Amino acid sequence: MKKTVQGVKMSNKLSRRDALKLIGLSPVAASVLLSSSATTQLEASEDVEGKIVIVGGGSGAIMALSRLQRAIKNPDITIIAPNEVHIYQPAQVFVASGEMEIEDIFLDNNDYIDTDKVNWIKDEVSKFNPDNNSVTLRSGEKIGYDYLIVATGIQSNYEEIKGLKKEDIGTNGISSVYLNDLEYGTAQGATITWDWFNDLKTAAKTKKPKVLYTQPSSPIKCGGAPQKMLYLSADYLKEAGLSAEYTFATGLKSLFHLPKIDQELHKTQKRYDKIENRFQHHLQSIDVKNKKATFIHAYEEEVYDEDFEIYEKVSRADEVVIDYDFIHITPPMSPVDSLKDSNLLDNMGWLEVDQYSLQHKRYKNIFGIGDVCGIPMGKTGGSARHHGPVLVENLISVMKNENLKAKFDGYTVCPLKTQYGKIIMAEFNYKGPAPTFPLDFEKPRWIWWAFDLYMLKPMYKYLMLTGRF
Ligand SMILES: Cc1cc2nc3c(=O)[nH]c(=O)nc-3n(C[C@H](O)[C@H](O)[C@H](O)COP(=O)(O)OP(=O)(O)OC[C@H]3O[C@@H](n4cnc5c(N)ncnc54)[C@H](O)[C@@H]3O)c2cc1C
User: Fold this and answer.
1) Residue 448, domain member (yes or no)
2) Residue 436 located in a structural domain
3) I need a surface site. Which of 45, 183, 237, 247 has the fewest CB within 10 A?
4) Residue minimizing CA distance to atom 43 of ligand 1
């Protein structure tokens, strides 16, 4: 679009070489389609009865809706979703790095919700009443159901960081690619972060700015996004012959839980001038005016006990203050507030579904899809797509009073952008790495960049959201 990086033209006009590479990608996409259609396609042949209510209007909800309509003859479906605008959230990262325009990431839920066939209530659920099979809307109205699908996604809790107000994001060197409002269909964090990239570049022309990136220890949607922002902004400066002092402060213990990818990311970091990693650092507060971030560094230390003459592990929690000129914040996240008061969450605070069947463990007529699910693996659109067929098959089994057969294998995907033009396509499931293609999965590749930038959105729009893939 705007520049040439690593010999790859980032332009709306494809070079001949890039076009050829993309043509090379087409069989890849075709094989994805073929490999999935065999296992996920259901004929609209199921003759089952019962009122299904879907709560949510994002990736998981629309995928569930489309798949149910493809599977059940004349289904009785109500969807409760306040938003007509549907944000293709993975592309917030591309907008934030100047590779897409903000207009490119908005879709229209009217294209997927046919109100001649589906009852669409444009409101929010304020209360879940699973003991009497109903939900209460913000308007006060109660809606009953026979079967419920919870697809309310995840909520960003910026206010848990003391000293930070949402309005501060975009001022005083603060950005956050995650900032969006799904109800009103805005993704201001994406454009704010692209401005932030450019402010950073301007600042780096006169001195090396201190740039801090944070990640909480709570589960977040797209766990790789904090590092995507680190590497893309560092690469943006590198391409201009500039640099900064980078600090990546994460609540986690490593860059990635899969050792091969973790090693590759450490290698990636060497591309950039100097990145200091601070692990197990939990952001507590920020002093917006004075540009100081305070973390709790929680760790265990081996201490020698002279009485018993043994080493023992002692938990420590130190306060650490880091000065910065620019900060990219990834907020702590949780399910939406209306779920917090319900009886539907597990002891970790997420929707208590079985990790294989996606059925609620205590309320057998309730299923989950997408980020809200309390399952061990990633919160991504890629997971939601794999939840879809499992959920539909198992829900139909419940409606037919049959045993549940479909199993979710934990699949998730994280396209880790290590620089402009390169992605590590980290695909894994409950058992470990699960690459779709027989390539070394930990290697950063141009082909994945092109796939993510040019092909995934059309696949999402035309195939995933319509339940074809
Ligand atoms: C910056 C960023 C980068 C990402 N990158 C990737 C990526 O590269 N690859 C990938 O696969 N995924 C990525 N994701 C994650 C992906 O977008 C989510 O995992 C996916 O959208 C989850 O779908 P969902 O349906 O669970 O939630 P969402 O799509 O977020 O939808 C939740 C819906 O629920 C609605 N809702 C909330 N509360 C209520 C209520 N009480 N009543 C009714 N409706 C309600 C909201 O309005 C919204 O429509 C990224 C996300 C972000 C933010």
Assistant:
1) no
2) no
3) 45
4) 124
Q: Regarding beta strands 51-55 and 76-80, do their DSSP bridges make them parallel or antiparallel, or are they unpaired?
A: parallel
Nearest CA to ligand 1 atom 19: 380
Structural domain that includes position 400: 44-156+337-411+455-464
Q: Ligand 1 centre and the CA of 153: distance in Å?
A: 5
Alpha-carbon gap, residue 403 to 397, rounded angstroms:
6
pLDDT digits (tens, 9 = 90+) for 277-292: 999 999 999 999 999 9
Q: Is 164 exposed, middle or buried (0-12, 13-18, 19+ CB in 10 A)?
A: buried
Query: Rounded to the nearest whole angstrom, what is the distance from the C-alpha of residue 20 to the centroid of ligand 1?
Result: 33
Same domain, 210 and 291: yes
Mutation to probe ligand 1, out of 97, 222, 341 (largest number of atoms < 8 A from CB): 222
Same domain, 133 and 259: no
From 32, 83, 86, 89, mutation site for ligand 1 pocket: most ligand atoms within 8 A of C-beta: 89
One domain for residues 258 and 366: no
Q: Are 396 and 46 in contact (CB under 8 A)?
A: yes
Q: Give the pLDDT mean for 437-465.
A: 95
Domain finish residue from 333, 365, 386: 333
Q: Given the CA of residue 86, which atom of ligand 1 is nearest to it? A: 49
Residue 195 has pLDDT above 90, yes or no: yes
Domain assignment present for residue 145? The answer is yes
Assess whether 351 and 373 both reside in one domain: yes
